[in-house]
Structure formats: C-alpha cells, structure tokens
Amino acid sequence: MSRLRAWTVLLALALCQSQMASDCQARSPNVVVLLADDAGWGDYGVSGNQQARTPHIDALATEGVSLDQFFVCPVCSPTRAEFLTGRWWPRTGVRGVSTGQERLNLDERTIAEAFQTAGYATGCFGKWHNGSQWPYHPMARGFDTYFGHSAGHWGEYFDPPLEREGRMERCRGYIVDICTTEAINFIRRSAPAPFFCYVPFTTPHSPWAAPTENWQHFRHEVLGQRATQPDKENIDKSRCALAMLENQDENVGRILDALDDLGVADNTIVVYFSDNGPNSDRWNGDLAGIKGTTDEGGVRSVCFIRWPAGLPAGHRVEQIASSIDLLPTLTSLAGVAAPPGKPLDGRDLTALLRAEPIAWPERFLFGTWGGRMSARSQRYRLDHRGMLFDIAIDPAQKHDVTDREPTTAAAMAAAVASWRDDVWGAGSEKPVGATVDPRPIGVGYREFPITMLPARDGEPRGGVQRSGRAPNCSYFVEWNTLAGEMVWEIDVQTSGDYDVVIDYTCPVTDTGSLIELSFLESRLTGRVEPGWDPPLFTNQDTLPRPPIESCMKDFRPLPLGTFRLQAGRGPLVLRALEIPGQSVMDVRRVTLTLAAE
Description:
Elements: H1 3-26, E1 30-37, H2 55-63, E2 65-67, E3 70-71, H3 76-85, H4 111-117, E4 121-127, E5 145-149, E6 161-164, E7 167-170, H5 175-190, E8 195-204, H6 212-218, H7 235-261, E9 268-274, H8 296-299, E10 300-301, E11 303-306, E12 315-317, E13 321-322, H9 326-334, H10 350-353, E14 365-369, E15 372-376, E16 380-382, E17 388-390, H11 406-424, E18 441-443, E19 450-454, E20 459-461, E21 465-466, E22 476-477, E23 485-492, E24 496-505, E25 514-519, E26 522-527, E27 556-565, E28 568-578, E29 586-594
Parallel strand pairs: 1-8, 1-9, 2-12, 3-13, 4-5, 4-8, 18-23
Antiparallel strand pairs: 2-11, 3-10, 5-6, 6-7, 9-11, 14-15, 15-16, 16-17, 19-29, 20-23, 21-22, 23-28, 24-27, 24-29, 25-26, 25-28
C-alpha cells in the first residue's frame, strides 16, 4: 500500500470515528429506572451503613449524581403514582394500596407514555401496584411489555407465579433474579434503539425471604448500628433486610454489566430510589419514623442518577427534591416532551444535576397517609401534630422548635392546609382501608381480552373470609355455607362469550359442590372437581410469616365453561347451590377471557 493510500485510509477511519462519536452524542439516551420496595435511606453503604453490602448501588452515587435530600411517600402505590405522573398522589385517583384503591385514574398520563410516544421501546418488570386490569394495567399506561406482579405485596418469592402480559406462569428461582433476567432480555432485544426500562424490585418488602447464600452472609452478623428506637428493632428482620438488599444489589450489578456489554452504558440514564422508608425499625441514620409514617425516616429515600455522557460524576445536590420531580427531569434530560394534559407538580432538576447556576426558589414538599400530613422545607419538618423540627441538627425529631421559630411554623401549617384542600379537593383526606374500591373493573376489552379477578379485588360475604388481613396476596377461605359468596363489581365492555377459569383448592373429601357464577341475567354452573388440596408453602420464608400475611399454596385451574355476558355494569357473584362436604373450595382468582370473534 502506498503512503498516500495509507494516509487516505487513516483519515477516513478518523472521520468515521468522529462521526460515530457525534452520532452517539446526538442519539437519544436510554433510561433505566430501578425502584426498591421498602428500603430505607440508611440501608446502603453510601448512606453510612457499615453492615450493608451494596457496592453496585453505591457506585451509582459515586459515578453519577446523588440527590441528598430526596423524598417520597409513606407507602408504595402513592410513590409509584407520583413517579409515573409527576403529580401529587392524591390527585391521581390512588386512595390506598389494595382492593382496587391503588389504581391510577385513567385521565392521568404517565412517563412511560411520554417515552413510548417519542419512539422508545418501553418495558416494566416487577411490582407495578397501580392497577391490575385493563385499562389500568401497565400495558395500557405506556409500556409495550410487562412481566411481574401487578398487585402490591406478593406472597411467593421462590418459584413464584408471575404475569406475562395478562397470563400467569409458574417461574423457577428467586423473584428478583427472575424479573431482572426479564429486564435484561428486554434491554438486549431493544438496543441499540432507545429504550425505557422500569424495574420495580419486590424487596426488601416482606415476606422476609432471602436467598440462602445471601442470608448466610448476615444470619449471625452482630449489628453495631441500631435503629433510632433500638427497643423496637427486630434484629433478624434487620439482618434479613440486609440480605435481601445484597441480592438486589447483585441484580443491579447484572443490569449495569448488561449495559456495559452492549456498549450503551455511557448513553444510558440509570435512576435508583426507593418507594418509602424502611419496613422495620433498623438503622436509618437516626431519622425519626419508618414506613407508613410522615416523619423524616418514613419518607426520605436515596436517589442516584447516573448518565456518564450527560451528568457529572460524584456531584451531590443539596436542594430538597421529590418523586414528583422525576418525570419532568427525565423527559428533559432525554429531550422527550412531557405527556400532555394535566399540569405537573414536579420541577425539572436538570440544572441542579448539571451543577449549573440557577435561581432555585424555596419550596415545600408534603407527605400524607392515614389522615396524617407533614411538610418539609429545605431545613425544617412540620410533623402531623403541628410540631416543628430543625432537621439539620435534629433528624430524630426530638426537639420541637415552634416557640423559637413561630413564623416558620405558622407558614408551614398554612401551606399544609392549602395543599390538603388543593390536592384532595374536599378539605380532608379520603378514607384509606381494606374496603373494596367502588370503581368497577373493566372486562372484555378486545385489545386485552383476558381479565383476572383476584380475591384481593373482590368482596367476601356470608361468612367467606380472606386468608390474611393483608388483601394483596390473599385468597378466599371459609366458604362453608350456601350464604357464602364472593362479589366483584365489573363493567363489561363487549357483549360476547367468555371462558371462565377459577384458580382453586379443595380437599378431596369435599369435592362435588355445585357452584354458580352470575352477572345480570347470565348464569353459569359447574361442579368443583377434582379434589386438589396441596400443602401450604411453609419452607420458603427466612423468618416466620406474621398472621397478617397469607401462607400461599399451589392453586390449580378449574375450567367452569363458557359464559355469555352482555355489556353493562353490575356485580359478578360466585356462590354455591349445593355443598355435599364441609366446604366448597378456596379461591385465588376468577379469570374471564373474551372469545375471539
């Protein structure tokens, strides 16, 4: 090769590489959002927890930006609603965490819809918790694909039954490992085109069940750092939370490795945060409160945002921020239009993340749950009793400074009252409890013909009970008399034939009950057979399961037949006409599938 030709080749290669670099910078960034379930601010090494083993999550802080004063909601589904919409959760239709109260109003637009509209591949893998049936389902809210459990608390962490786009399947392995594998497969399928991948992990939410190898690292650990109120701490729960988070960290590492392997890590925005404070009293940096409270420890979370191509490494943002800020911030960073419609409550944090000079007005962040409300300024917290605390020097909220700062206390109290009237619209918070949400469940959408009606969304009557006081992963039991029934309020969209399957168990000696499913003028009857009485799963949990949570078992499908339904709203009722044995059956769910035209 001549010298001139060699120089020509080298110049061409240089120009090609320059163009590739330019294309990379112009290419829309990918987005991966990782959400922990019930992890406290203090559950990570980067927060000062000397017992935590979270190197991959900690690295997101050192390699990206840390929002050092980041706040979420006291419980799960409200935080998810705020992340998805950029709006205070009481505006969104969410009223609770189970029995349909967790549903996001249909006129709310989501961050996933914004990225989907911009041409991104979108996927959600894990705990959704903002509506199970279409059109509340994640695939109706901007996600191309979904795998996981759409309810909140899930009772099976090993070999769990999980949903894949409307159908349940029994999986093998640990739930976090399984959902992470699905997320990685989605990332590999989607790259190099831009993707938005949402991975809401299931842990460290109870049940207290960690993989054996992770539990062995902590089961005998002497915990030198204790809870803010050490007399309330259950040491084994603290150990198990550490073990579950170690496993979660390993899965975060798997996702980060996949981004590296695909060569897309530099142009991928990775976000990590939690949905509320810790679900037990454990070390949390001396912050007052845990999950379910509106105190500092109940609503403060870590939040790390890493984007090597677009954000400085190791930068710390001291201004207070919130889950409502993530939608306007991520859409801004990616150059994606925010979803049209209702005004956002969150602020775009882009300038803060990039350490750019900006006038940043004082703001208040609000927390509410169970009728209690609190407010946070940059320095102070006004608690639900109207007491004011200087969080900068008193994170445990032990010293009321109202007398010292009466003007601040009055201003924050007025802000809470104004916010309450604004977001609730009637001057007070709506009730939160286990009552079934009055909004009907849609059935018979052609674009999503399968409708699962789990026990958690139904109402037991006539002596029928739930298997545990936590409805999300419960099933109906104590169906012993003809007075017993279970009811789902549904709204049939399409008149037609529906295949009916009931997930059930029944002792062999009790088989043969004649049951009836009815809706308006339609009736379908069948016999409960064969018998199926599997043992409870008693060997899955690391720590004993509390009575509030159901012990699960392997339900089997009972095909009841084909049901002709007319469009309209009314109660779907399952009852017994004959009971030859001591009981009818236990019921996990009823599934209605609209037949193809």
